[in-house]
Design a protein that fits this description.
The complex is a heterotrimer of chains A (282), B (263) and C (255). By secondary structure, chain A is an all-alpha fold. Chain A is built from nine helices and no strands. Chain B has helices spanning 40-46, 73-79, 101-112, 120-130, 147-158, 177-194, 205-208, 229-234, 239-247, 256-261; strands at 2-10, 15-24, 29-34, 57-63, 66-67, 84-87, 165-169, 197-202, 214-219, 222-228. Chain B has a six-stranded mixed beta sheet, with helices on both faces. The chains are: A mainly alpha (282), B alpha/beta (263), C alpha/beta (255). Chains B and C meet through helix 6, helix 9 and helix 10 of B and helix 7, helix 8 and helix 9 of C.
Amino acid sequence: MIRLFKQPQTAMRYKLQLGTAVLTAALLLFLYIYTAFVLRHDSTLTNLSIRLQGSSLMHPLGTDHLGRDVLTRLMLGGRQTVGYSLLALAAALLIGTASGMIAGFKGGWLDRIFMRIADGFLAFPDMIVVIVLSGLLGPGLHSMITAIVMVKWVSYARVVRTTVITESRQDYMLAARINGLSPANMLSRHLLPHVAGQVLVLASLDLGKVILLISSLSYIGLGVQPPTPEWGAMLNDSRPYFQLAPQLMLYPGLAIVLLVLSVNMLGDYLRDYFDVKKEVRV
Amino acid sequence: MLHFDEITIRTSSRTLVDKVSLNVQPGEWHALVGQSGSGKSLLSRSAGQLLPPGLSAEGSILLEGTDLLGLKRSNLRSLLGRRMSYIFQDYQAAFAPFRTIGQHFREAIATHDKQRLREAPDRTSAALESVGLEGSLASRYPFQLSGGQLQRASIALALLFSPDVLIADEVTTALDSVSGHRVLSLLNRLRLETGCSILFITHDWRHVRRYTDRIAVMKDGRIVESGGTHRVLDHPRHEYTRRLIAAAPVLSRLPSGLQEAQP
Amino acid sequence: MSNPLLCVEQLSKRYASGKLAIDEVSFQLGRGESLGLVGESGCGKSTLARCLLRLEPVSSGTIIFKGQPVQQLTEKQLNPYRRDMQMVFQNPAAALNPRLRIRDSLLDPYKQYSSQMQHSYFSCTSRSAFVTELLEAVELSPSLSGCYPHELSGGQKQRVTIARAVSIEPALIVLDEPTASLDVLSQGAILTLLEHLQRNLKLAYLFISHDLAAVSRMCSRMLVMREGTFVDSFSRQMMFAEDRHPYTKELISIF
């Protein structure tokens, strides 16, 4: 039937999501610029004379156990975490989408091999694979990113493959064949728009998970190595001072929570955005 | 028998069905013809309070004096399927895919006639045979049946308790014309045998012209013309009815040149 | 027929499951002719259409299109012939990519074949002018070109797929139940449009349908298919003749 209702809440939620995301981003950007250009602390310079201070004008969030500015470290750490998460995800996304599209479109033995490899990766829980790989390749950023890519590409490949297979059965793909489109053309023109939305939404939801993963790996000492600031590592560092200065654990924890929340909001927004048929149908 | 009195269905912005009155006589086959979006399905669904969420009907619908719109859900449930039945276009959705045809019949008997649940297998195969299917199909799952067979089974289920009124919503649309034709002649036979009246919703008057007693033509939520089948089809009064008739090709023994020359 | 456009000889199609979908069918189709193919669902008529367009491999037999046997050609070799055969599908909602705007769907065949086109009917000076011309040819408003398929009604969508099929001025269009999923008013309008386009573009139609009334309106010659074989073949004048196959008589009795 034709569109009968436009649900007002949907439009509201839509704006709310976008608004929150934009607001958070603006706030973070402001804080980042403020720390980088106004405060200009060195994130790794230790100064034991001012350790474990509370909030002040010079140190808005105080200092940590080595006298380093918490806000500066929080900002730089955030840059690291988000940057590496994005990097890892982008790599996983590219590999997953490409392999999923080819496997789903070509089918046959190629598909079977791809999927058996994917099944192999899926058999292990994310966390375990990441820990084992980090252990094997040695702790550090490069091994963490490799591990995340290896774990994450599988889910994209599977989603993409399923979409490609169902959409390939539609009549419009037959029409494309009749119209002489090359396989590359069919993939890029007809299938990519279907896949892109889905995968981007999935990725934005995964971004939260990856941030958590990087933070938790750093927390247990397998990720970013000190003195480079990173939220998980900061949490870990401040553990011994939990009773003296609880805010040291609170700030990076809050930062993780807020970032993951707003990234998930962004994911929700993207999902609505890529849904061509926005109206609710009866 | 089934009497729609000034039914209005509207959303906040649009009126979908506008003060429509319709009366289905006992034992008659009444066709309701219209394009998609004309409101014909909404009208038929309002009788069983089957409207999509957010919509409700104003007016009154009487089934032998009982006002259906005022009934409580629980009372309506005991009435639906027993005194008034529905069959829909989507025959695949009429049966849950993981239960056999027989289990569906058993469930219906358990709902409406619990005392005689023990006779369920016999009644099921008798009902299936009455629509020209083998009784052994009861042990099959829906996906093992063809479209025509499933639609027959859904008719058998709808007529299990000899309802007074059967509301058939586009039941032949998803079938090809051959299976559709067989389903229609079956419906007609069952109507003559059981005496139930049929309210038949369709967009294609060709399917029903040989069975229906009366036709109502619906457009944009209103009935623009209604009357005896022959009167409406042979001497249409409303412009829209004329267009409907002109749009659908029929076979005639006239040389084709003459047929095409008509406006 | 001395030089038919399409000549099918003893074509068979067996599914991987071993089921015989088409059993040695033969027929010819002349240039500019419309041939009807009638049968109920599951009789193999849609499979036949897909085999003709080489969307599915055939098991045995020959398909000669414009004097060239095409049944064994690879996709690449098939390309010059693909330009001349188009198809209109039963369900227009599935035949248009829901994520592409109407104009992008319409331009699909044009992008591939524009170099081989004769432009005898459509002038196409620019892409946007071409899209406008196409939409007007199927009596749609040019303003629809920026819409997505879900914003159009079923009849409008089917007009778009027809516009796409005629855009490269093919010799043959296989119409696979083009009206089956539309309501009566749209059905009639689509049939009129198809007749109109056939006259203007000198198209040959293979009209596949279960609706004998629609087929007999469009086609002068008809084939009746049942369980993978042709049981009857007749011209429109001979439709009511006494020696028709009993199955044909049953089909006639429906309408």
